Amino acid sequence: MKEKLKQQDEFRWWLDKSARERMKVSAKIIGSRKIIDALEDAAVEQLTNVATLPGAVEPVLAMPDAHWGYGLPMGAVGAFDAEEGIISAGCTGFDINCGVRLLRTNLTLDALKPKLRQLMDELFRRVPAGVGSKGKLRLSDGQFNDVVRLGARWAIENDHGIEADLTHCEETGGMEGAATKAPRITEKARRRGRPQLGTLGAGNHYLEVQKVEKIFDENAAKTFGLESGQIVVMLHCGSRGFGHQVATDYLERMATAVKKYNIWLPDKQLVCAPASSPEGQDYYAAMKAAVNFAFCNRQVMTHWIREGFEAVFSKDWEKIGLNLVYDVTHNICKFETHETNGTKRDLYVHRKGATRAFGPGNPLIPEAYRSVGQPVLIGGSMGTASYVLVGTEQAMKETFGSTCHGAGRAMSRKAAIRRYHGRDIKQALEQKGEVIRSTGTKILAEEAPKAYKDVHIVVDSVHGADISRKVACQVPLGVVKG
Amino acid sequence: MKYEYFDEITSDQMFRAYGTTLSEVFEHAAMAMFGIMYDLEEIRIDNQVKVEAKGLDKEKLLYDWLSNLLLEFEVEGVFFAEFSVEEINESPEKKMHLSGIAKGSRTMPELRTHVKGVTFHRFALERVNNQYIATVVVDV
């Protein structure tokens, strides 16, 4: 399928809908030639699968971090007409509202360095990590309902943060209209989710203490409160078992809906339902509950991170300036209005491993940032680098206001385990001066930096295509892994 | 062979499980799934959990079995290593039901990654030459 891609310019590739039968719309890939050369043919084929779904809006998109996943490639955007199109639990995937948040500090490396080990020990102790990890919070049924209804606001109302944290989150940390009860939220989802609020999880999720290494855009950086040499904290995690169970429940329900509404599927994972159908709307309301759980999860952990800094530096977190820069989600389906071919259309935009990147002036961007655009947080692989980007007008015109989400895997986990040993990885990173805290060393092999694409090349592609622009690059100093 | 892993899908993990009976292929698929997260041999069994599943056909039953095992693993905090399918039956309405036991320990082994969910991508349960073959891709 890759041979049918037509290069439009240095960073754009077009796959015409004539490439394959049943494609309703064409597809576009953002990336340099190097990115395209490394992209799996199966990932391109998966884009064409999405383009066959009812109500797909041109184009189906892959970002430069895209790779072969299940259903939709990881690193893709699929937008569907809100009336004639579908909502897909399969396209959104399991880790609903997996996302990234960034906290700034007023610390420099000199102040941090003597205390870095102590700080990483403290953060590792306070933020529960690992497979099946359980949180320190014990929620009643009623409290759980409030968490999924309110999102991060629940944490604020329960002394785990401040009001300003909410204004610095996508969706202000919570989507309205979330389902809270059966049958839309199953008992299974409640059982799985309730003990997991306030847990990092495992796999590719992490907590990093980073240093701002380079500033690319002084004005945007200043607006976001970032400067060279500054210490920042990045948190990457999602809705944990609650979101995974919501996805599981609705994959099964949508598998039935596909038959009921006679929808042809090229891949069973793309199960969906008409956007306006009860199945579609029930999923959307249940997905919002998982979105809110994830926002609340990151907020609760933010509070413990602040407490960790307070314990190590013996002063209030406010004096350390541990304020939220922003919180973005990169796994979600959202109702948004976008202009396509000169007409405004209501759409359900599925971002699976893609980040919203709204340009300047958008009312959904916090007021303090509105003149420059939405902050976009890109988590790199362990031990490499992360970025802060800013959304652009071009993203609004071309990618439904979306950009990449991270480095993207280049090697499967089993292949990484065969090639690398966790202890060697840890040693190599520690020789570079990084402090690694994890539940074991095996996870480090799977997450080996070289198992991922080069984040700099990924970011250069979205910058080159102008669907977001580079603001700052950060390097890790300390990592907590599940 | 009970099961084997395939690493062609970059971001996720595919495996195939084999069995001469339906019960056996279900048990081996469970071993393959939990074997992604940790070494099953490391687990010293001291706990067990009853797991039920239901589905309109064999494939859906397998999906429900694997998904429910992930649920019970997280809720009960037991690191499963042995699985036995006690009974699979079909109701007069052609609905299938399974009851099984998952055995393991609450002592945490060294962990690799986390299986988040069982996907439908390439999901299949076939019978080839008197052998059941389950193909599963999990989100990790």
How are the elements arranged and paired?
The complex is a heterodimer of chains A (482) and B (140).
Chain A: E1 6-9, E2 12-15, E3 27-30, H1 33-38, H2 41-50, E4 60-67, E5 74-81, E6 86-87, H3 89-92, E7 99-108, H4 109-112, H5 116-126, H6 141-150, H7 152-157, H8 163-167, H9 187-193, E8 206-215, H10 218-224, E9 230-237, H11 240-260, E10 273-274, H12 278-313, H13 317-320, E11 324-329, E12 331-340, E13 343-352, E14 355-356, E15 375-378, E16 386-391, H14 393-398, E17 402-403, H15 413-419, H16 422-431, E18 435-438, H17 442-446, H18 455-464, E19 468-481
Parallel strand pairs in A: 3-4, 18-19
Antiparallel strand pairs in A: 1-2, 2-3, 4-5, 5-13, 6-10, 7-9, 7-11, 8-9, 8-19, 12-13, 14-17, 15-16, 16-19
Helix pairs in contact in A: 5-12, 6-12, 9-11, 11-12
Chain B: E1 3-6, E2 13-19, H1 22-37, E3 47-55, H2 58-76, E4 79-90, E5 96-105, E6 117-118, E7 124-128, E8 131-139
Antiparallel strand pairs in B: 1-2, 2-8, 3-5, 4-5, 6-8, 7-8
Helix pairs in contact in B: 1-2
How would you describe what is shown here?
The complex is a heterodimer of chains A (482) and B (140). With 482 residues, chain A is an alpha+beta fold. Chain A has one domain: Alpha-Beta Complex (tRNA-splicing ligase RtcB). Helix content of chain A is 35%, strand content 24%. In chain A, the strands form 4 sheets. In chain A, strands 7, 8, 9, 11, 15, 16, 18 and 19 form an 8-stranded mixed sheet that branches. In chain A, a hairpin with a 7-residue loop joins strand 15 and strand 16. The model of chain A has no long low-confidence stretch (mean pLDDT 95). By secondary structure, chain B is α+β, with helices and mostly antiparallel strands. Chain B has a single domain, classed as Archease domain (Archease, Possible Chaperone, Chain: A, domain 1, 3-Layer(bab) Sandwich), CATH 3.55.10.10. In chain B, strands 1, 2, 6, 7 and 8 form a 5-stranded antiparallel sheet that branches. Chain B has a 3-stranded antiparallel sheet with strand order 3-5-4, with helices on one face. The longest helix of chain B has 19 residues. Chain B is globular and about 45 Å long. The mean pLDDT of chain B is 94. Classes of the chains: A alpha+beta (482), B alpha+beta (140). The interface between A and B is large, with 52 and 39 residues.
